[in-house]
Amino acid sequence: MKKMNIPNLFKIALKALANNKMRGFLTMLGIIIGVASVITMLAIGQGSKDSIHQQISEMGANMIMVQPGGDMRFGARQSASDMETLKLPDFEAIRREARFISGVSPTVTAGGQFINGANNHPSTLYGVNEDYLTIRHFAVDNGTLFTDQEIATAAKVCVIGQTVARELFPDGADPVGRIIRFRKIPFLIIGTLKSKGANAMGMDQDDMVFAPYSTVQKRVLAITHLHGITASAIKEEYSEQAMSEIGNILRTNHRLKPTDTDDFGISSMEEIASTMNTVMNTLTVLLGSVAGISLLVGGIGIMNIMYVSVTERTREIGLRMSIGAKSHDILAQFLLESILISLTGGIIGMLLGALLAMGISQVLNMAASIQPWSVALSFGVCTVTGVFFGWYPARKASNLDPIDALRYE
User: Fold this and answer.
1) What pLDDT is stored for residue 313 in this prediction?
2) pTM higher than 0.70 for the full model?
């Protein structure tokens, strides 16, 4: 018998699989489920990561947040609400001396009910300056923003988000020029904000009210300290330099010795984005690994079926070897069958995984992004699975003694 060529091996392998269609499909099922699960999980993980990164960018990727911290009184650390380590001179020093920032704003906040006649809505009043809206990528949709003069005089004016406008003016009336009350204090609405929707943390960015920080400090909270300072680095890649610069300015302003710990905390959106990326990457790997267990189960199923196939076709193997087939021909034949089962299951699994990812994205409104590398990885894993789990049964078939194989019943 002439040495078998590749086309002949394919024909024999395909014929063998065609003779046991149902068994072949059930063997593929583990691979199909495994690949589909891996593709779906990786697509959802990558999509979620891209969505979070996009939303963080919309919040201000180069944003830097300074919070009070480390305040000690009588040997006891104070709660965050009691810390008063940030003052207006700190904000003014940062605005005056920092070179790596493009904008900076004091922040003071107060929560409570906003009232318009019989309508009321619980929300948060943010005391800020005009830079804050630029830093956070907010824009005025109708009306105007408060001016430096209104900040200097602690004017009782505000700009409201779309959610607040909808709740306080359910009839659709234009809020600009209307008076609303917060803690019995009247505020004149001078503008409304463009809608931004929810951020990466699920917070409704339209459910807020902005007013001059001086107004919130003096007229609402009656305090002289700040709840925080928000700044923006000139570029995202300069965030580290800007944070270091702000830290040095605050340490100097607070007359801290080299051995003293900071009485403030500084963080950036870049750090938050990096942390969330790490978490999402870990979660994606975990989900992919759990889904990949199905591939292992599918591989074991292939090995089991190939063992059965070798046993059932022992006489066939003996007959082929008796008329000239070599051991490597038998090895190649059974190995090719194993690879065909694995690759066919893998291709079906990839298509099913893509459909599942798109379906979940549409039905559950979750972001999903199928990456080319995940498809290539799945294809490679299927090939390796076919070779790895098919090798030993194929090797067993190629090592059969022709005489013993012909006598096998």
Assistant:
1) 65
2) no
For 343-371, what is each residue's pLDDT tens digit? 888 888 888 888 888 887 777 776 777 77
Strand ranges (E), 34-118 = 63-68, 72-73, 76-77, 101-116
CA 83 to chain centre: 33
State how far the Cα of 217 lies from the Cα of 108, in Å rounded to an integer: 7
Q: What is the pLDDT of residues 298-332, one digit of tens each?
A: 777 777 777 677 666 666 666 666 666 677 777 77
Give me the mean pLDDT over the 184-194 stretch. Answer: 95
Beta bridge partners of 64: 231, 268
Per-domain boundaries in the chain: 6-55+275-407, 100-235
Helix-strand-coil percent breakdown of the chain, rounded to 5?
55, 20, 25
Label each residue of 117-181 as H, E or C: CCEEEEEEEEEECHHHHHHCCCCEEEECCCCHHHHHCCCCEEEECHHHHHHHCCCCCCCCCCEEE
Q: Which helix (H) or strand (E) holds 193?
A: strand 185-193
Cα–Cα distances in angstroms (integers) from residue 400 to residues 1, 37, 219, 303, 338, in the given order:
18, 38, 94, 17, 18
Q: How far apart are CA 353 and CA 294, in angstroms?
A: 13
Question: How confident is the model over 128-151, as a mean pLDDT?
Answer: 93
Q: 197: phi > 0 → left, psi -120 to 50 → alpha, else beta; which? A: left
CB 305 within 8 A of CB 21: no
Nearest C-alpha neighbor of 345 from the set 390, 399, 295? 295
Across the chain, which distance is largest between two alpha carbons, in Å? 105
Greatest mean pLDDT range, 80-94, 248-262, 263-277: 248-262
Judge contact between 19 and 163, C-beta under 8 A. Answer: no
Helices (H), 61-122: 88-97
Q: What angle (nearest 5°) sits at the alpha carbon of residue 396, between those of residues 301 and 334?
A: 60
